[in-house]
């Protein structure tokens, strides 16, 4: 039982991060139908940016803030310089553009930072807290509460502010949104900016536990993408559920099957989900419009 | 006129390919360039397979390097652990690729668009993971050496020999792909690419045609992987990795989706470019990413269709 609980804790910790990345995928996808494979690199920018700013003598909270802003700038530039000029390209071409962007960001990070793994000090000590025979790291609580705050903030933003409602309207129907006077291009930029910020915050929260390097983005992008797909692309709750599910599957796979095959366990589970529900857990019935 | 013919007819495509193949050894200043050219032919073969899946049938595969890995490890494992002849291992590896593609493709080709993308991505990831983890058989993350290929007592070695072996393989592959394109199956694939429902309405067995394209594409990649392993004499799990899958897709799209020439040009571009960029050292990755972006943004239909349009406009 203690082992089970331990696996649940560690699964939920990484699952929350996957959920945040999946949320970024979902935001951008809903606003623009683009799958942004550079989503994972925002996580890296958040983590690496904070590490390097902090080592330059800037106080940790300020360093974190600057790193998040840097990620937002990268997200906005990505939208303005790479996605906007290719608006009419096919989905596969758009995927390749964002993959190119991801390789480019990693390449620049390699030059700007270095090839080493880096860590941040845990925000409030690293003494494990004992819970019913299992232990939990204080940083895991930071990750969980940070993610909760982000989800709540995002939900409030979408439902209560005019800008958020404009984003939802754009996601629902771009043409109709334009007809009622919404600046769709600005909304798409907003989606990229917000998803970059979410990714960067996730990166800062999780770096004390998982470490960071210039190329950690790839794995986060793969897992976040998988989480978004398992949940059903475009559904915010699906993204959260998918992220937690993949985190838990990975932890159970590592604990009960084999730690080398934890990724395989997660992906096999995804394949099974998709066979039964071809549009993901929250995707509804498969209906094709002709 | 000749240029226009090279872009439009089957025979023209093959003649152009043969002409380039004959020309390269004449102008290559050293055996290094021949090796790079042989790599181009090998990856062009794999990209051709993916062209049949993505270009003809319109099905995304983000895990195609998985088949590259299966083919490569077949010629590494066969001779070493099962005492099989390398050539027989190559054939068995290609067969295995086809079989795996059939078993995996049957359920996952029901998925569409991004869902198919994530399923194929998962498949590629699992193959790479198995190859990296089963150290007893595969040598783990460091990979394993591959026994030399010998054909009827003649040892296949040297840059020029490999150049011709790979060129011959690509030529056969191109011939077959062009025939598939012109066959009833090719027409059925293009029909379902445009609209699955319309194709089904016209009597195309959509599921089995998609599966056929996936199996053929997998066999191409498997043979390419085997040639890669035999030529390099060493193989690592990275062959099957995600980045390789992405590179294959980039080759197919940058060259021009759906044409044999496109696959070859795309492969040439993405094989030669990193070689040219190694002098840039740490800037290599950034420049590579930037170039992929620039090509996709400004030439979204790919190099070959853009050239073809220019040539045909001039000819008319």
Automatic annotation (TrEMBL), chain A:
Membrane topology listed for this record: Multi-pass membrane protein
Family, as annotated: Belongs to the binding-protein-dependent transport system permease family. LivHM subfamily.
Name of this protein: Branched-chain amino acid ABC transporter permease
Pfam family of the protein (one): BPD_transp_2
Protein location: Cell membrane
Principal location listed in the UniProt entry: membrane
Transmembrane regions listed in the UniProt entry: 7-31, 51-78, 90-113, 141-158, 179-205, 237-258, 264-282
Keyword Membrane annotated: yes
Keywords: Amino-acid transport, Cell membrane, Membrane, Transmembrane, Transmembrane helix, Transport
TrEMBL record, chain B:
Primary location recorded for the protein, binned into one broad class: membrane
A UniProt-annotated Pfam family: BPD_transp_2
Transmembrane segments: 39-58, 65-82, 88-105, 114-132, 152-180, 211-236, 248-274, 286-307
Compartments where found: Cell membrane
UniProt keyword terms in alphabetical order: Cell membrane, Membrane, Transmembrane, Transmembrane helix
Membrane topology annotation: Multi-pass membrane protein
CDD domains: TM_PBP1_LivM_like
Name of this chain's protein: Branched-chain amino acid ABC transporter permease
